[in-house]
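Morning F.,

Quick status update on the modeling queue. The single chain you submitted on Monday has been processed. Sequence for confirmation:
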Amino acid sequence: MKTGNDPNSFGIIGLGRFGLSLAQELVKAGKDVVVLEIDPAKLESVKGLIEHVYPVDQINREILFESGVAHCGTVVVCIGKDIESNILATLNVIEAGVPRVIAKANSLDHGKVLEKIGAEVVYPETEMGARLAKSLISLKTVDFLELANDISITEIGVSSKFSGKTIAEINIRKKYRLNIIALTHEGKTTVNITPDLMLHAGDQVVVIGENSDIGVFGKANS
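Structure tokens below.
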């Protein structure tokens, strides 16, 4: 019998748009994903993509252990409109001893209840809206992670303006006060960023710095 919790194993409860997107990205990253879903049609949509999918009528302690969800390192409760089911499922996962439990909330009041019972809370619609707005403001930004009020990690697509130039020639650290921490070229990512590393149009660079400096670099790159 399996015991303990695997930090590389993720449980997804509910396959709405949020849960499905989350499950797909975790599978792409090579993580072990276990999905519980009431609607058979939604399970059919992930057949062949996710190995461990379980149709359920309700979420209880027995189902969590039988499916292996209770042994995951992280479980995300993605149940949407049915707030009561969302809260009860979250409570059951917490009581099963899962180290990290994240639950989707539809409102601030709903989120407060989830926090009270010990879950981390996400507000997908609100957060994705803010994320998109920041992406649009940052021009070619394709991903955005805010570390503090004015410091972020951002992935930016390299334009033709910087194509064929090295990191040293662009002088990004001195001129734009940014640090490149990763670069993806033709699908391959490196974190070994040297001054003679050349950029090409279509590359993706991950930079860290102040939001205002990221904006300046984004405009120069557009």
